[in-house]
């Protein structure tokens, strides 16, 4: 075989593997690239101080922004609590008024029922008295008539 049609044979655990090379590599492997070195810059203490001050300012501004957001959140929560308490008190008042109205109606109905029962008992007692008097008068007539 020529070098363009090269077959290599590999044996592995699962069987035999073949590698078929039809032609040679068309380009050469890239040479190692030259290392580019950045120009060394001299670091000055003033530059470091300026960067540290800028970082401190950013940190302080972020803290201030977070505090502002927390205050806004607290104000919103307080407002919602007040609104909830107001709604709760309104609901309680409405329920209390409704219950009082029902209790008044119940009391009036109860008084009416009691009054009706008392009237019936009194009517019945009058009827009993009338019947007794009639019986006494009839029995007195019978006693007077028998003599």
Structure characterization notes:
It is a single chain. The protein is mainly alpha-helical and 147 residues long. It contains one helix and two strands; from the N terminus they run E-E-H. A two-stranded antiparallel ribbon has the order 1-2. The N and C termini lie far apart (169 Å).
How is this fold's topology laid out?
Elements: E1 6-12, E2 15-21, H1 45-146
Antiparallel strand pairs: 1-2
Q: Could you list some keywords that capture this structure?
A:
2 strands, elongated, 69% helix, 1 helix, mainly alpha, 147 residues, two-stranded antiparallel ribbon
Overall mean confidence score, pLDDT:
86
Distance between the termini: 169 Å
* Main sheet: strands, sense, barrel: 2 strands, antiparallel
Given the helix and strand composition, which structural class is it? mainly alpha
Strand order in space, largest sheet: 1-2
How many H/I helical runs?
1
- Approximate strand percentage: 5-15%
Brief overview, please?
By secondary structure, the protein is mainly alpha-helical. The chain is built from one helix and two strands; from the N terminus they run E-E-H.
């Amino acid at each position: 075989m020529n070098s363009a049609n090269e077959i290599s044979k590999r044996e592995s655990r699962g069987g035999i593997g073949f590698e078929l090379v039809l032609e040679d590599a068309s380009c050469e492997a890239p040479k190692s690239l030259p290392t580019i070195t950045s120009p060394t810059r001299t670091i000055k203490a003033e530059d470091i101080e300026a960067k540290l001050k800028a970082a401190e300012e950013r940190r302080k501004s972020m803290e201030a922004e977070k505090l502002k957001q927390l205050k806004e959140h607290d104000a919103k929560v307080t407002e919602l609590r007040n609104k909830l308490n107001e709604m709760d008190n309104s609901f309680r008042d409405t329920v209390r008024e409704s219950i009082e109205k029902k209790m008044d109606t119940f009391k009036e109905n109860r008084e009416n029922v009691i009054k009706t029962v008392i009237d019936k008992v009194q009517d019945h007692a009058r009827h009993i008295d009338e019947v007794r008097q009639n019986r006494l008068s009839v029995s007195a007539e019978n006693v007077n008539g028998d003599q």
